[in-house]
Specification:
- The complex is a heterodimer of chains A (about 325) and B (about 900).
- Chain A is of the alpha+beta class.
- Chain A has 11 helices and 10 strands.
- In chain A, strands 8-1-10-9 form a 4-stranded mixed beta sheet.
- Chain A is globular and about 80 Å long.
- The two termini of chain A are about 40 Å apart.
- With about 900 residues, chain B is an alpha/beta fold.
- Among the domains of chain B are: about 160 residues, 3-Layer(aba) Sandwich (Dimethylsulfoxide Reductase, domain 2), CATH 3.40.228; about 150 residues, Barwin-like endoglucanases, CATH 2.40.40.20.
- Chain B is about 25% helix and about 15% strand.
- Chain B contains 25 helices and 29 strands.
- In chain B, strands 22-24-23-29-21-27 form a 6-stranded mixed beta sheet. A 5-stranded parallel beta sheet of chain B has the order 3-2-1-6-7. In chain B, strands 10-11-12 form a 3-stranded parallel beta sheet, with no helix packed on it.
- In chain B, β2, α3 and β3 form a beta-alpha-beta unit.
- In chain B, α4 packs antiparallel against α8, α4 packs parallel to α11 and α15 packs across α17.
- Classes of the chains: A alpha+beta (about 325), B alpha/beta (about 900).
- Chains A and B meet through α3 and β3 of A and α2, α3, α23 and β24 of B.
Chain lengths: ~325, ~900
């Protein structure tokens, strides 16, 4: 059963599991939302590089400055805009502080002792000082660029019946447009709601095909930075070896905590979480739900071994019973 | 710009830097990551506010009160950098006793000419040592130093000449009191002028709480001094006002008082809006200046070459402007080559003469009045992007011919069929006589050339692909146009054709058969024409001579091609060189990254502190040295004192860091140069629902107004009818679009990000007027009415001004009415009228008065009726708000 465990839950090296013998260091993003300026250069650069068609009907959504709504078949980077007033900011700071109290400055990822970042008393004192100085704002505008998580245990890939989705040597997950048959199993399977089949008329390419971020597979194979990270003017989107990205995220959270911003936390990247860790790590300034992210994502295929085991046991039991019936009949 | 990363505090005011300059904002982000405090002062909470330490909401157009109160705070609490202020600014200089302040004259300075509506600035002059005219040693006389009347200076928009230094002074015999105690010192005048600019006044006029004011004051002063520096960033949120130049002057005074000029992490960053807008003032597309900020000759003032030279370059004035004759002769040699000779005064008479103001708005009005036959539009979409869109479109319809060179079929090219005025019946397609030529241009990746960006940095852009079909670069187009005109005139013996026929128009073609941009940049750089170095490129502007032996198309760019190397194309990555990064691109002048950097050292030439060291005096080698090119005469020791009366660079004392100023000092008080006062003073915008609480004078008495039936204004302040337009509106850009949308509304990637025109209102205003998020609103000004989708957001804050709640409405201006773009909509600029700053002729587009109502606007003729109904309810006439001087009864 060890083989199944490695495949579907818990820590593992997904590229090696996928059979790559010359796998590369696992690549990923660290998206630091605390320095995102919401310019959407990532959305545009992504669309240009990947030649994605127009998304939606050019309507104003009335949802702050967000007019693309969410990640989808034709939007592979999406910037969320969240307007918050003072009471919510205080709650965010408080919930972050509780994570610190629990020894978890980050959702999921293990605690790394780094300076004062995990010093509860210090962080609390800083937060209090910040409030007294009036630096706890009465309003804030959060911006966050979302992207495919390139999960360690990627449900989309696990359920794909055609092999259109595959694991690359960089540990990322990519759709092969010409293999996908449009069955849509992956759409229902993704715990983040990232992958989607494309709609459109015959002027649009890949209609009906499942589409999502490739982590610029066609760039990183040539030592190029993915288009979104390349375009980001403030280095809010960073790209590199995943372990380095995780380390940077932890460091940045610690630095923000040192300055009293206890609301900062890491999202993704914990290999013990429901998807075995993500290839895209985020620094958030509030709870994940605020950004439209699931707080506790679980790969939909996590229960498969158990299900198979139970199904197998049931089958064996049935066989035994059936055999028993014959045995009994002879009597 | 990169130097912002060295700041300890950055105040962004009059700019939405993160949204409008996202690439430059990386340096603010870097400063912040290093611990700098970033404060955003703006009417709206924007993406800049979201990433700043603090946002301070302010009423649009009230910035001089806020900044003036900072000056008062700094002076009253002795927080200024004393050594710097005494040695490097004109704080100690004594002003003549004819000068009268706005505090004495209820909002006017001495010298106001009621008839012409401008100042005669002679009473603002420095006091002189001794008596009599300018004959004695130590004077710098001549016509240059005379006091040109403000009216004439405004007509030629003379303020732009100071893009590279200050104006000439009438004499050098200035009196100084370094104890700063004499009541006529600039320092004491400054103190008195701003004494009433208190935190309480800020609360009352700007709507900024006293606590917020103190937060900013503390952050700024605690982060200035020997060890720390603070920077200001501004953009068109400061410039686009009827006293825009004075907004920036106020910040300059603060930065001089705090010792933040000429030092790393200090200064005032002017953020310019397009890739090469700085370039288009250096090598101007403006009517009033020649390349390198040389004045355009004006009828009556500069009739002869001698008049002109005397006006631009006085040999007795200190600093590098004293050599302006060399720059002017070299320019004329670059343009007219061998045809420019000493005998014909270097072809000076080939230059046209200005007869008055010919800015873009004067031209538009002349066009509308049938006085302009033809018009070229390149990279501009005035039907959407310029103030008073309706006037712009009606004016285009009066032309005989119009050439539009644009990537897309913009609204300025389709006005004859799609303009909103067709729907209202004001225009009929069949009756418009304008012949429109639409020509396809090459895009920025399809042509090579240089951009000069916001920090004076020239960067070479290589061509990536050839332009498709008939598309052509601007350079190619004008080269070809010039060739064809010259061919047509080839046989002419009319003297008026000589300037065209004598032009040097012999540029080589490159391997693609296109005119070589490198050859043009070399011409701009300049050459030695005769002598030992004949044929060689100039090394820098100090090579240029007034004897016709050199040429240069723009003296401040001299050196960009020194030794035959295109330095604009330098691309050494930052990590491979020093933090000043002088091997990336080339900055004018002389590849200097921080201007006036002599001020980064103390009067003895030592860095003010180890942390902020930049340029210093090397005693051993008797030279200035440091991390950047020193902005000083290299061998002038700190202790050097010139003989009285010495002009030019040798006239600069060792502690005169402001090398382009006539007295070598930073000007807290501007005895010349500013047309609307030597000190910034608060006036209300041309139209404002607020009465000026500081003076009887309501608005800038020297502003430029155009009382016309097609340019009406709402009543201001407490005048009857002002309540009809009770709200303030302000216009701006979004990251997702480019100005009037010509480069963004046609692209699905960008159009989908901000697909529709919207207005931003506070929940309180939405409640008051019944506006619903996602619904529609109609916004009405004294000029027009437009409709927009509604975004209700806490990012807009109602302000309490003089005890009354004041709402502001935010309007991005990217959309226009047409059928060609992917997304279209009403244009915010249709609400604006035309009133200008007197110094630089820029329009006031950042503050106006409006009403807002729920629902869509009426269509057709009913739209005009709605606008007229508002006008008559408010009692608007051509005279309304157009009196320059506010009279006894407050009008």
């Amino acid at each position: 059963m060890g083989f199944w465990h490695n495949q579907l839950t818990g820590p593992t090296d997904p590229a090696r599991d996928a059979g790559w013998e010359d796998e590369q260091p696992r690549k990923g993003f660290f998206t630091d939302t605390s320095i995102c300026i919401g310019c959407k250069a990532c959305e545009v650069a992504c669309k240009e590089w990947n030649a994605l068609p127009q998304d939606g009907d050019l309507d104003l959504l009335g949802s702050s400055y967000d007019n693309t709504g969410s990640l989808g078949a034709s939007t592979w980077r999406h910037v969320a805009f969240i307007e918050q007033s003072g009471d919510r900011i205080e709650e965010a700071r408080e919930s972050g502080r509780k994570l610190v109290d629990l020894g978890m400055p980050a959702i999921g990822a293990p605690v790394t002792p780094s300076g004062n970042g995990t010093d509860t008393a210090f962080a609390t004192a800083q937060a209090t000082a910040a409030r007294e100085l009036g630096t706890l704002p009465d309003f804030r505008w959060l911006m966050s660029s979302d992207v495919c998580k390139h999960c360690t245990h990627a449900a989309c890939l696990d359920v794909c019946p055609t092999g259109a989705l595959f694991r690359t040597e960089f540990g990322t997950v990519v759709v092969q447009d010409d293999v996908c048959n449009g069955c849509g199993y992956c759409v229902a399977a993704c715990p983040f709601g990232v992958i989607e089949r494309r709609d459109g008329d015959d002027t649009v390419k890949n209609v009906g095909v499942a589409q999502k971020c490739t982590l610029c597979y066609d760039r990183i194979g040539h030592d190029q930075t993915p288009a979104c990270a390349q375009a980001c003017p403030t280095t809010s989107i960073k790209f590199g070896d995943l372990d380095e990205m995780q380390a940077q995220a932890q460091e940045r959270v610690a630095a923000l905590h040192d300055n009293g911003f206890t609301e900062a936390r890491v999202y993704g990247g914990n290999e013990h979480d429901g998807v075995g860790g993500t290839g895209s790590v985020f620094l958030l300034l509030d709870e994940p739900e605020v950004y439209g992210l699931p707080p506790d994502p679980v790969v939909t295929t996590a229960d498969l071994p158990d299900m198979y085991r139970k199904a197998g046991m049931a089958a064996v039991a049935m066989l035994v019973m059936a055999a028993g019936a014959f045995v009994g009949g002879r009597k | 710009m990169q130097d912002l990363a060295n700041a300890d505090c950055i105040i962004i005011q009059g700019s939405n830097m993160a949204e409008c300059h996202p690439v430059g904002y990386q340096w603010v982000t870097e400063a912040r990551l290093k611990g700098a405090k970033v404060i955003h002062i703006d009417p709206r909470f924007t993406r800049t506010s979201a990433t700043a330490d603090k946002h301070v909401p302010i009423r649009a157009g009230s910035d001089v009160v806020f900044l003036g109160a900072l000056i008062n705070h700094i002076l009253a609490n002795d927080l200024y950098f004393k050594e710097y202020v005494v040695a490097y600014t004109n704080a100690a200089t004594i002003v003549g006793n004819e000068f009268k302040d706005t505090e004495d004259l209820d909002g006017l300075f001495s010298g106001y000419d009621e008839e012409l509506g401008n100042y005669d600035p002679s009473s603002w002059a420095y006091a002189t040592e001794g008596e009599g005219p300018d004959a004695s040693p130590g004077t710098i006389g001549g016509p240059a130093a005379g006091h040109e009347h403000g009216h004439s200076k405004s007509e030629r928009s003379a303020g732009d000449e100071h893009g590279s230094g200050g104006p000439a002074l009438e004499h050098a015999r200035v009196k100084r009191d370094e104890t700063l105690q004499d009541p006529h010192t600039v320092f004491q005048i400054l103190k008195r002028h701003y004494a009433r600019y208190t935190p309480e006044m800020v609360a009352d006029v700007c709507g900024v709480s006293v606590d917020d004011f103190h937060y900013v004051a503390r952050a700024l002063t605690e982060n200035s001094g020997r060890d720390r520096t603070s920077a200001f960033c501004y953009a068109v949120g400061w410039t686009q006002h009827t006293l825009g130049a004075q907004f920036i002057r106020t910040a300059a005074i603060i930065q001089l008082l705090l010792g933040n000029m000429g030092r790393p992490g200090g200064g005032i960053m002017a953020l310019r809006g397009h890739a090469s807008i700085q370039g288009s003032t250096d090598i101007p597309t403006l009517y009033n200046i020649l390349p390198g900020y040389l004045a355009m000759p004006m009828v009556g003032n500069h009739d002869t070459w001698d008049d002109y030279v005397a006006a631009i370059a006085n040999k007795a004035q200190k600093g590098f402007w004293a050599n302006a004759d060399a720059y002017a002769v070299s320019l004329l040699k670059a343009w007219w080559g061998d045809a420019a000779t000493k005998e014909n005064n270097w072809a000076y008479d080939y230059l046209p003469r200005l007869s008055g103001a010919h800015g873009t708005y004067q031209t538009t009005m002349a066009m509308k009045d049938g006085e302009v036959e033809g018009y070229f539009l390149l990279g501009q979409n005035p039907a959407v992007g310029s103030a008073h869109g309706r006037m712009q479109r009606l004016a285009l319809a009066e032309l005989k011919w119009l050439v539009v060179r644009d990537l897309n079929m913009i609204e300025s090219a389709t006005f004859w069929k799609d303009a909103p005025e067709i729907a209202t019946g004001e225009l009929e397609t069949e009756k418009i006589g304008t012949e429109v030529f639409f020509l396809p241009p090459a895009s920025h990746v399809e042509k090579a050339g240089s951009f000069t960006q916001t920090q004076r940095l020239l960067q070479w852009r290589h061509k990536a692909v050839n332009p498709p079909g008939d598309c052509q670069s601007e350079l190619g187009f004008f080269f070809e146009l010039g060739k064809r005109i010259r061919e047509r005139l080839a046989d002419s013996d009319d003297p008026r054709d000589r300037p065209l026929l004598d032009l040097t128009w012999d540029y080589p073609l490159n391997e693609d058969g296109e005119i070589s941009g490198e050859a043009v940049l070399q011409e701009i750089n300049g050459r030695h024409l005769s002598g030992e170095r004949a044929g060689e490129l100039a090394d820098m502007y100090t090579d240029l001579k007034a004897d016709g032996s050199t040429s240069s198309g723009c003296w401040i760019y001299s050196g960009v091609y020194a030794k035959g190397v295109n330095r604009a194309a330098n691309r050494k990555p930052g990590r491979e060189q020093s933090p000043v990064a002088q091997e990336w691109g080339w900055a004018w002048p002389d590849n200097r990254r921080i201007l006036y950097n002599r001020a980064s050292a103390d009067p003895e030439g030592k860095p003010w502190s180890e942390r902020k060291k930049y340029v210093w005096w090397d005693e051993e080698n008797q030279t200035w040295t440091g991390l950047d090119t020193p902005d000083f005469v290299k061998t002038t020791a700190p202790s050097y004192r010139p003989e009285p009366g010495t002009g030019g660079p040798a006239g600069l004392a060792g502690d005169d860091p402001f090398v382009m100023m006539a007295d070598g000092k930073g000007w807290l008080f501007a005895p010349k140069g500013m047309l609307d006062g030597p000190l910034p003073t608060h006036y209300e915008p041309q139209e404002s629902p607020v009465q000026n609480p500081l003076y009887r004078q309501q608005s800038n008495p020297a502003r430029r107004v155009f009382p016309r039936k097609d340019n009406l204004w709402s009543p201001s302040g407490t005048a009857p009818g002002s309540e009809v337009y009770p709200f303030v509106f302000t216009t701006y850009r979004l990251t997702e679009h480019h100005t009037a949308g010509g480069m963004s509304r046609w692209l699905p990637y960008l159009a989908e990000l901000q697909p529709e025109f919207f207005c931003e209102v506070s929940p309180e205003l939405a409640e008051e007027r019944g506006l619903v998020n996602g619904g529609w609103a109609t916004i009405v000004s004294a000029r027009s009415a437009i409709e927009a989708r509604v975004l209700v957001t806490e990012r807009m804050t109602p302000l309490v001004i003089s005890g009354r709640t004041l709402h502001q409405v935010g309007l991005p201006y990217h959309w226009g009415v047409g059928k060609e773009a992917l997304v279209s909509g009403d244009s915010a600029n249709d609400l604006l009228g035309v009133a200008l700053d007197p110094n630089v002729q820029i329009q006031e587009s950042k503050a106006g008065s409006c009403d807002i109502q729920p629902g869509r606007r009426p269509e057709g003729e009913a739209l005009l009726r709605l606008v007229h109904e508002y006008q008559s309810r408010a009692g608007v006439t051509v005279e309304t708000s157009n009196q320059l001087k506010t009279t006894e009864d407050g009008t």
